[in-house]
Amino acid sequence: MKSRLSGALCACIFTLASIPVMESANAAFVDAVTDNGNSVIDVGSVTGMTYLEVHFNNLNPVWIDLDNTGAAFDPFFGMPTDQMLVSVYNDTGIPWTDFHFEFTNASILQPLNIEPQTGLVTDLQITDTAVWLFFNPPEEIGLLNGQGVIGTPNDLYSFHLQPTAVPLPAAVWLFGSGLLGLVGMARRKKA
Q: What is the pTM (predicted TM-score) of this model?
């Protein structure tokens, strides 16, 4: 009985040891980030896909350089690929009218799944290297789980993200300049 139990335990250990660990064959690694005061978190390069969270604290663009060296060749697309999942959070407190992201040295091979956090995507334009999302009404918008397959014939590629805020109406600028003029005149009278 003891030998059967130890044999079964050895078989279980051998079976567990032979289970392959999830490799990141189709996951690019973040090589460098120009975040301009925003934050980029590499959430899941070990999950087999590139998973990034980008938190915008301001409206400055974010550039992410990725390294897909050693990616598996995808026979369906005829090139190495990266399966990418991106979540973008608007922490600026300023509503966005649209959001743009673009790839350099890579191309979008498979359509993206777009899920805005709130609001509606009124227009979606996709080219082979870029995506534009337009929101209506403009509000605190973010993008949850934008995903797709990226073709990476070059080992190194870049990902550029840029939100656009609701522009201030001309009346606000006119009111502000008039208010400054009144303050200047009041100071002039005192002097």
A: 0.69
